[in-house]
Amino acid sequence: MFYWIMKHIVVGPLLLSIFRPWVVGLEKVPKEGPVILASNHLSFIDSIFLPLIVDRPVVFLAKSEYFTGKGLKGWATRMFFQAAGQLPIDRSGGKASEASLNTGLRVLGEGRILGIYPEGTRSPDGKLYRGRTGVARMVLEAGVPVVPVAMIGTAEIMPIGTRLPKVRRVGIVFGEPLDFSRFHGMEGDRFVLRSVTDELVYDLRALSSQEYVDVYASTLREQRAAQTTSG
């Protein structure tokens, strides 16, 4: 109920009227049943506008740190992510990664929409980066349709490191649903996982027209942080 009120009465109408998003292909999102929305990731606000546009609730798996902050700021952040329909997960790897997978599969098993970012983190410079194969494993184990989604212009509206967005139009483009049923039962094959991931990222590249870089976005961010520290 809280999610519905925030989306349809409090926050949603205000944001839609201010940023006036343009949308292509929304009809490609199934009206019912489990589905994965796999999006490029340019800005913090991707997780806000994508759920606003889709008629059905969209669940994202967010870092658990967003739900554990203290004080007024921690409370406000927690309320915001709950209102956005996001679930806390531990991204530290190992057993935490397995728990994240299981949480995503549970959401899909309930017939809901799960939003994921194949790149794993926000692009540091607006380019499209190599996808993480953990996404492919979830896709194959769930056996549900995957709709690629391209967020357009969100990096210009709210770049990494900024707190307040600029008022500009947001674009959201939905691609044709992808069917990976031909790989059923092969989620343990790392070559298959890489193939599925690359196919998905290829579609995102076509939809978004982003320049593709064949490295992980997180690796590039770590390298830049190390250079800044050493400098």
Automatic annotation (TrEMBL):
Record's GO cellular component terms: plasma membrane
MF term (GO), any: 1-acylglycerol-3-phosphate O-acyltransferase activity
Domain Phospholipid/glycerol acyltransferase per the UniProt entry, residue ranges: 35-154
Keyword Aminoacyl-tRNA synthetase among record annotations: no
GO terms (BP aspect): phosphatidic acid biosynthetic process
InterPro entries the record matches: Plipid/glycerol_acylTrfase
Signal peptide: none
Record's keyword terms, sorted: Acyltransferase, Transferase
Name this protein carries in UniProt: 1-acyl-sn-glycerol-3-phosphate acyltransferase
Organism: Agromyces bracchium
